[in-house]
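Quick one, tokens below. Sequence please?
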């Protein structure tokens, strides 16, 4: 069993993030960086130790499911409650919430690493912790001061849990289909009526519900305009129930310990977060954070599968030697390691950009900046907003697809035992299956990325990447690989020119395009890591050599297979549909 606080996590904590610049921007005053980083290290060490201690219980009770409670709620199985209580006692709940409300104001990178560690031990427990933080952050960003004071200390102490309620039977990927109704009441509160499905942690006290405003209800139907985000507690002020009920629990293929609830809102009273009619924008903030959260969850789960597969491959002997020494198995394991590291590189890079922008936002809110400083910070902020907007769906797409493939390969490494419950490989793969679906499916993430590319994001991203690669070309260790990655950027742009001449064909190729951009960005970040630790060259080289050829292949598929492709697919499907 590998260390939960691994070398790449330490690398980012110690060398890859310029904490002095980031904390300086955020606080606007001198910061004792060593003390801050020391505190971060201590949080990560405590989380790693605790998470590792949950592992045995999580595997043993993997199939245990949530249950309904008498008061119309739902509760997770006992092993999840025990682990939650320990995290709560250690103060490891809602870490990104500001200190004014009892949190640590922890950077998102560190929170991402915490989530990854918890998910490695138990992806179901991560659902509780991840939604808890996500809901609290949204309240902090969009809630009135009164709502923040009322709820956030209860979130950071772990007293209440949260969830996000978007999906309805007819509104899955397309949230324009939402019919749950939000009606204004004279005292400024909002009455919520409707049904939601698949709500993770739906037994939690605080629901953030996306609902359609009663004013203009018919006019806005079918679109994401006219929606409000409403904070709806399960109980009223006097402790009585508030018209929120779990009507059913889903039975699932994996993440059994996470309660997946059908919810009924029947005259439930809540309070708006953000502006009336702007709920989709407020929910987008939560969804983007949740997408990165699911990417961290997938990475943690991938680590669990990888660690078990490597350990088993050294123990299991066939033909007189460990199977880890058979070239086919060794290469499969090496590919798993490299892909997990590439996911980690892109994800940590994205978190770092997000943290910088959160710090810039705080700096821009201060009056003490000169006009020149303000203009420079604003420019950097705008550039990195574009980068984060493109990287967020790419992280979710890449991490969850890699987790799916990697956990399947781990099962293969275990041979027959992998298909039985005597190993944990099947559990990992079963848990991985949901990750390419919730928080927006892989197809939706690829389409979002394409939309951002269409708005010009790739130009901004590639401008930065090319500058970074050009600097690496002066460095003997990285020059050859940096050149290859620069060539990959050219191939991507060639393919893009073809795609943008035909929007329907572009949608068909959204996943190929997403993967090509991911490969360039992850490769560049892996090369940055080599700059800090030259021993990482083999991982970077393995990824780049493989992905260089894949990029060539993908771009030829886009260029040479364009003619008549959409129509041919339609004919093939028409025949199969009878
Ligand atoms: C265990 C679990 C937990 C969940 N937790 C939550 C939660 O906490 N809160 C919440 O609100 N929801 C939650 N969900 C719901 C989840 O987010 C949705 O299931 C998901 O967004 C997909 O919606 P859908 O199931 O309706 O699929 P559909 O939207 O019907 O999609 C079906 C298929 O069509 C594809 N597709 C649809 N539209 C397009 C398009 N435009 N282009 C390309 N392909 C497309 C999809 O990619 C998918 O492959 C959860 C679901 C599960 C199973």
């Amino acid at each position: 069993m590998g260390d939960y606080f691994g070398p790449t996590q330490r690398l980012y904590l110690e060398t890859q993030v310029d904490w002095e610049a980031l904390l300086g921007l955020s606080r606007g005053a001198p910061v004792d960086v060593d003390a801050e980083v020391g505190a971060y290290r201590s949080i990560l060490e405590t989380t790693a130790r605790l998470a590792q201690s949950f592992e045995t219980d999580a595997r043993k009770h993997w199939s245990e499911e949530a249950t309904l409670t008498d008061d119309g709620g739902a509760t997770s199985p006992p092993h999840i409650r025990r682990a939650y209580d320990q995290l709560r006692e250690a103060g490891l709940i809602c870490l990104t919430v500001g200190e004014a409300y009892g949190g640590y104001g922890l950077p998102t990178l560190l929170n991402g690493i915490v989530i990854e560690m918890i998910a490695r031990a138990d992806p179901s427990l991560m659902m509780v912790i991840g939604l808890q933080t996500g809901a609290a952050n949204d309240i902090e960003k969009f809630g009135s001061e009164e709502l923040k004071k009322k709820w956030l200390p209860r979130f950071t102490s772990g007293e209440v849990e949260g969830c996000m309620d978007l999906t309805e039977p007819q509104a899955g990927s397309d949230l324009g289909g939402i019919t749950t109704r939000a009606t204004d009441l004279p005292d400024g509160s909002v009455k919520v009526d409707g049904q939601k499905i698949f709500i993770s942690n739906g037994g939690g006290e605080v629901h953030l519900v996306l609902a359609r405003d009663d004013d203009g209800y018919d006019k806005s139907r079918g679109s994401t305009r006219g929606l409000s985000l409403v904070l709806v507690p399960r109980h009223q002020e006097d402790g009585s129930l508030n018209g929120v009920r779990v009507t059913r629990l889903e039975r699932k293929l994996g993440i059994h310990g996470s309660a997946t609830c059908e919810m009924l809102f029947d005259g439930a009273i809540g309070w708006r977060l953000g502006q009336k009619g702007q709920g989709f924008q407020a929910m987008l903030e939560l969804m983007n954070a949740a997408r990165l959260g699911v990417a961290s969850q997938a990475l943690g789960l991938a680590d669990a599968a990888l660690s078990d597969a490597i350990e088993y491959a050294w123990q299991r002997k066939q033909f007189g030697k460990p199977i880890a020494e058979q070239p086919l198995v060794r290469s499969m394991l090496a590919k798993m390691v490299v892909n997990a590291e590439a996911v980690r590189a892109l994800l940590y890079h994205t978190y770092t950009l997000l943290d910088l922008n959160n710090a810039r936002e705080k700096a821009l809110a201060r009056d003490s900046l000169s006009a020149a400083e303000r203009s420079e910070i604003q420019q950097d902020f705008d550039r990195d907003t574009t980068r984060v907007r493109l990287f967020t769906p790419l992280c979710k797409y890449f991490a969850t697809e890699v987790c799916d493939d990697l956990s399947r390969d781990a099962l293969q490494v275990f041979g027959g035992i992998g298909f039985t419950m005597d190993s944990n490989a099947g559990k990992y793969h079963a848990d991985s299956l949901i990750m390419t679906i919730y928080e927006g499916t892989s197809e939706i993430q690829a389409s979002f990325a394409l939309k951002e590319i269409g708005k010009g994001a790739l130009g901004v991203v590639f401008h930065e990447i090319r500058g970074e690669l050009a600097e690496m070309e002066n460095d003997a260790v990285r020059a050859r690989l940096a050149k290859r990655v620069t060539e990959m950027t050219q191939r991507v742009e060639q393919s893009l020119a073809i795609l943008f001449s035909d929007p329907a064909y572009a949608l068909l190729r959204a996943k190929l395009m997403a993967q090509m951009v991911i490969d360039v960005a992850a490769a560049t970040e892996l090369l940055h890591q080599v700059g800090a630790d030259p021993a990482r060259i083999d991982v970077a080289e393995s990824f780049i050599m493989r992905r260089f050829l894949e990029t060539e292949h993908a771009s030829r598929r886009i260029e040479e297979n364009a003619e008549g492709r959409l129509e041919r697919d339609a004919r093939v499907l028409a025949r199969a549909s009878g």
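Residues 163-167, 172-173, 198-200, 252, 260, 434, 437-441, 443-444, 447 surround flavin-adenine dinucleotide (CB under 6 Å). The longest strand covers residues 260-273.
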